[in-house]
């Protein structure tokens, strides 16, 4: 008997049938309820930010002393930059300078989304670079990670306040100031992913195929960290939006003339008892935006990275 | 045989919609009598474990019982309540799992875990329970029961842990024991002891055993009757000798024909062929340098000497932790040896302690195929990308590499259409073929197979083994074949090295090592091989 090639093997090859196609990752993502709801809300907010000028808004910096402290829905006057006075319906009321809160909140969506996305990009870029470095060079690992631990020990908002105070409030400085405290978290995640992926047999196979170290990093390790990183990026985005509002509210963020939700709320704070709408509407938008991004992130985590979902 | 303890009547269990087949198990009927061992055999995905879970009432919600009945001692438990099932488990039926480390709670002592079973199901006083725990621990032949009872699972060896799991299962004298691949995670010598123990305890108690396994050697050792499952359907059921020696169904015949025999094949090899690899006193020591602590060192490999000539296959066999993979990884230089030399080819380049830069041009001459086909291919790269990566690294143009890739896919019996697909679209055996093709793309002089067929089902294993043989012969390659499975080793090796504790304890021509083993460890290893001396037949 030939033990190696049984005669009727060909007729019964168990393995010749292709394995049923795995359900694609994107298919699963699309069908996830929180991804759908979060994605829909976020898409709506992006639309609002893009078409803000055509949604019945006026220039958010315009003010009119005659229209101070109007309640939502009231009609009043507003003076354009050209000195022309126009009738305007204040859908969300006006603040103590007579500025239209509706216009300021809608334009504020632009600022918040830009800050959120840019923060995520900056934090991810720096974190990925540092994480790859720490995961590859064992000598640098110890020192770099202790520095990261040190940064993590300081509350994020304190670092951001200190950094903005050192520089000057502008979009760039605020984004960088918010991103820096997030970098250690990304670095840790990337480093741990690199450390586990580089033990995978396919990476060892690449080593024996003579693939240079940097190419293994870019070709075999980095692409396999994408799923958990996308998830992490959404959470940083939400945190960035929130932190920017906090900074503006405390008066250490973007200059008060830029319409951000935090700035609107900061100005409404003094009159909160009489005119709660000054804080209510920007607060509502802030809450909905952060909720949308977090829902999207949760859904992505559940579908792209089930292991992470169990860990948290 | 006495009255049946467990009966399955037309058991049908559904799979979630959208799967590869509608039923996990379809119309399966068989019975287990008291004092009888029924082996349920089948390849991965055949539904063996699903049947075990169904009997224990442990099926996940996604797999509902659609039809049929499960009867335990006359009581229909197919749709028994959770409370009733809880009463039955441990008292009337119990289960031993594959992986004892995960079956035990890591934060409870072994004694407490056995005691918990007694507390749940009996009204014994704590002194009585204590006596019973010690009794059962002694009965599963654990030395020093006082210490074992106080130990946590991680303080015991794999075999000892499995004995604890068996003690837990048997402490209340159940009439039915379900063993789901109980020895698959264990080394062969430990496996032999555990199999003997299970049989002894079962005979002493007259319990029925449903023994699930994929290993026909184990079947030959333990079974009274054998049930063969294929994709959820029972294809053959009968007494052990009838099924193993005169299988009726084509599938059973194919499975049994695929079981590698322990008989050595006659092989012609040229003893004067040029040396491809010479390993001289190779050492690998892991040092654990603790801050202000004492140094510990582990000798993973010590004074290893090997030679492989062109066209020859050298097998390294040994149990887990014997250092066989360490040797392979030192030769490929995935890890750096601590000492010794690895001389490659006619030029006798010593790559053991060479710098990575100097090593790079030499890497293509040694290639390796790993154990786990699911992790050996980058999930995000197509087969074509995986195949051409190596040659392109060494300056071959993409077109030429693609041509070579197509040729090699044909050699490993894969369709050229595989090129543009991703690894997850292939089965384990197909992936292993792709990995072999990837290694051959480099036109190596030495091919290392590190447990390359261990994760495969027996029929696929036979095909991949045949492929290795064919490639070695056609390309006149030198091969280093690392395996824990003596049957596999006996099929492909010209030379054999037996490793234990990081050292080679026996080394010589395969027929000599198999025919007249000199070292006590080699003899123990051979004696432990399950189903040794059993004549499988396909007549």
Structure description:
The complex is a heterodimer of chains A (312) and B (539). Chain A has helices spanning 25-31, 33-50, 101-136, 138-153, 156-166, 171-197, 201-208, 213-221, 226-250, 261-268, 277-304, 306-311, and strands at residues 74-79, 85-90. Chain A has 312 residues and is mainly α. In chain A, a hairpin with a 5-residue loop joins strand 1 and strand 2. In chain A, helix 6 (171-197) packs antiparallel against helix 9 and helix 7 (201-208) packs antiparallel against helix 8. Chain A is elongated, with a radius of gyration of 26 Å. Helices cover 36% and strands 25% of the residues of chain B. Chain B is globular, with a radius of gyration of 26 Å. The mean pLDDT of chain B is 89. At the A-B interface, helix 7 of A face helix 11, strand 16, helix 14, helix 16 and helix 17 of B.
Task: Lay out the secondary structure.
The complex is a heterodimer of chains A (312) and B (539).
Chain A: H1 25-31, H2 33-50, E1 74-79, E2 85-90, H3 101-136, H4 138-153, H5 156-166, H6 171-197, H7 201-208, H8 213-221, H9 226-250, H10 261-268, H11 277-304, H12 306-311
Antiparallel strand pairs in A: 1-2
Helix pairs in contact in A: 2-3, 2-11, 3-4, 3-6, 3-9, 3-11, 4-6, 5-6, 6-9, 7-8, 9-10, 9-11, 10-11
Chain B: E1 4-14, E2 23-33, E3 37-41, H1 48-56, E4 65-72, E5 75-76, H2 82-88, E6 93-96, H3 100-103, H4 110-121, H5 126-139, H6 145-150, H7 158-170, E7 176-180, H8 188-205, E8 208-213, H9 216-222, E9 225-230, E10 233-239, H10 240-245, H11 250-258, E11 275-288, E12 296-309, E13 313-317, H12 324-332, E14 339-344, E15 349-350, H13 356-359, E16 366-369, H14 383-393, H15 398-411, H16 428-440, E17 446-450, H17 458-475, E18 478-483, H18 486-492, E19 495-500, E20 503-509, H19 510-515, H20 520-528
Parallel strand pairs in B: 3-8, 3-9, 6-7, 7-8, 13-18, 13-19, 16-17, 17-18
Antiparallel strand pairs in B: 1-2, 1-4, 4-5, 9-10, 11-12, 11-14, 14-15, 19-20
Helix pairs in contact in B: 4-5, 4-7, 5-7, 7-8, 8-20, 11-17, 14-15, 14-16, 15-16, 16-17
